[in-house]
Write a structure and sequence with these properties.
Layout: H1 13-33, H2 37-53, H3 55-59, H4 64-83, H5 102-116, H6 120-131, H7 136-143, H8 147-176
Helix pairs in contact: 1-2, 1-4, 2-4, 7-8
């Protein structure tokens, strides 16, 4: 039933909460499946649309992420076979502008370079935590180490990454400042 403001209540509030909580992790997964970031966003949108249609059944299961990841994989396979993305028309197109992500790209690339230079174990912990969205217990189980070791490794790695980023930022700002010419006529 509509409320007095004309808005209908969401049919699946749990789905909306799921999307808010897991959208970034799903987008990262999609970015590993397709090379173009725009295609990755389309892939996630299509997967979430499919998931929404079946949310009653999926939400009763133990792991909605597994279902959504299976849909992502299937959609990627269909796209790879030349099927392309199927546009789904809507009655009301979304309002609002799309954010420009270009300014942050250089920072992301710098961070990606730093992370790729980490020792394997540290790189695994960072990847599992921030790209896959796993918690310390899940990472510990996957790597066969104690959760306290995961937390400690993550803490130490983040300190080192921050220090290196600050060092690089400081060096870049010093090299960008104009220097005075000290030429003197002798």
């Amino acid at each position: 039933m509509d409320d007095p403001t004309g808005h209908r209540p969401a049919p699946y509030p749990d789905f909306e909460a799921y999307v808010r909580a897991r959208r970034q992790a799903l987008l990262r997964r999609a970015e590993r499946l397709v090379p173009n970031p725009h295609d990755a966003q389309d892939l996630v949108q299509l997967a979430l649309l499919h998931t929404f249609r079946h949310w009653d059944r999926i939400s009763r299961g133990a792991d909605p992420d597994a279902y959504v990841q299976q849909v992502l994989d299937g959609l990627r396979t269909d796209h790879g076979r030349g099927g392309g993305w199927r546009d789904v028309p809507t009655a009301d197109p979304p309002d609002g502008a799309v954010a420009d992500f270009a300014p942050g790209h250089a920072e992301q690339e710098s961070l990606r370079t730093l992370v790729s230079g980490l020792p394997q174990r540290r790189r695994q912990v960072v990847f599992m935590r921030y790209w896959l969205g796993m918690n310390a217990a899940e990472i510990a189980a996957a790597l066969g180490i104690a959760p306290a070791t995961v937390r400690s490794t993550l803490f130490q790695t983040l300190l080192r990454l921050r220090a290196e980023l600050e060092r690089r930022e400081s060096a870049a700002s010093q090299s960008a400042s104009p220097t005075r010419s000290t030429n003197r006529a002798s």
